[in-house]
Design brief:
Layout lengths: L4 E5 L2 E8 L6 E5 L10 H7 L4 E5 L16 H14 L6 E6 L1 H12 L4 E7 L10 H5 L5 H7 L3 H11 L8 H11 L4 H12 E2 L2 E2 L1 H14 L3 E6 L9 H8 L4 E5 L6 H4 L1 H13 L17 E2 L10
Parallel strand pairs: 3-4, 3-5, 5-6, 6-9, 9-10
Antiparallel strand pairs: 1-2, 1-11, 2-4, 7-8
Keywords: Hydrolase
InterPro entries: AB_hydrolase_1, AB_hydrolase_fold
Organism: Nocardia rhizosphaerihabitans
């Protein structure tokens, strides 16, 4: 089993985890706001035997360096594509995105449909205006910075409880990891920038949502949309919008699950995603392009707490 590595992509530090046979279909895994690639740890165990899995900490999230420009969906999507180029993954990838990661996945598809084989949208942003209050409060001048400036173990635990239905999943290791992320120098600013680019105190902005959904719907990419029926961050009622926006998509509502089914019900999630990916045609695209030279280091456990 591989550990996360640090890549240098256009002079910027990017933390990634790559596992699985290079000749197998590539699957890109994208996490949510303020989180990290560890959200996919359970899926690496279950899916890396069948696919080449690529997960990364988005710019300014986890332990990846932020970008110089303000964070937005187009900026994040471009950075993800640069990382795929850097690891010589030039095939169209199956993109699996949770929460903010789902919106980034759709933005990648809209900008570069040739780089996307299918979409798996997991409790994804982009399908409704409703979003949990703490994320809306981040959009307020002054208050957003105060909410994220001084993270504590208690605040880290609260954030985990917002996303996970089962209290037993909120372990000391998970809280320690969340606190380590919150204490990174870029995390607070990037979370606030992201929230303000996508939402107001009233909720998620309609303009970018409608434009993005229309652009992605026109592509008719193979799409799977899944949701937890107990989602406290983005309510499961958004699944109705997803059905309308993507009538060709497969949909699945998981009972008694909150915002991150890939963690809460890892076996069921992996089974559903595998079934979907196995049914997507033309997913085995030959690798093209010569591998690029990368600066890679392997950080130790103490540097980056893992779950």
């Amino acid at each position: 089993m591989s550990s996360p590595v640090i890549l240098t992509v256009k002079g910027r530090r990017v933390r990634a985890r790559i596992e699985g046979d290079r000749q197998k279909p590539p699957v890109l895994l994208l996490h949510g706001i303020g989180r990290s690639l560890e959200d996919w740890a359970e899926q690496f165990v279950r899916l890396s035997g069948s696919y080449r899995l690529i997960a990364l900490d988005l710019p300014g999230s986890g332990f990846s360096e932020r970008l110089p420009e303000a964070t937005s969906l187009p900026v994040l999507a471009s950075a993800v594509l640069e990382t795929l180029d850097a690891v010589s993954e030039t095939r169209a990838v199956h993109v699996v995105g949770n929460s903010l990661g789902g919106a980034v996945a759709m933005q990648i598809a809209a900008a570069r449909p040739d780089r996307v084989a299918s979409l798996v949208l997991v409790d994804s942003a982009g399908f409704g205006s409703e979003v949990i209050l703490p994320l809306r409060l981040m959009t307020l001048p002054g208050l957003g910075g105060l909410l994220t400036k001084h993270p504590t173990a208690a605040s880290a635990r609260m954030l985990e409880r917002m996303s996970l239905a089962d209290p037993s999943l909120i372990t000391a290791a998970r809280v320690e990891h969340a606190l380590a992320i919150a204490r990174q120098p870029d995390t607070a600013a990037v979370m606030v920038e992201t929230a303000r680019s996508l939402a107001t105190i009233r909720g998620v902005k309609e303009k970018w949502r409608s434009e993005l959904l229309n652009n992605v719907a026109a592509l008719r990419l193979p799409t799977l949309v899944v949701w937890g029926d107990h989602d406290r961050v983005l309510p499961s009622s958004h699944l109705r919008t997803a059905r309308k926006a993507f009538p060709h998509a497969e949909v699945r509502l998981f009972p008694d699950v909150n915002h991150m089914p890939q963690i809460e019900i890892p076996d069921q999630f992996a089974e559903r995603v595998s079934h979907f990916l196995d049914g997507v045609a033309d997913r085995d695209v030959p690798v093209s392009g010569a591998p690029q030279t990368l600066e890679v280091s392997h950080p130790g456990f103490d540097a980056y707490p893992v779950i």
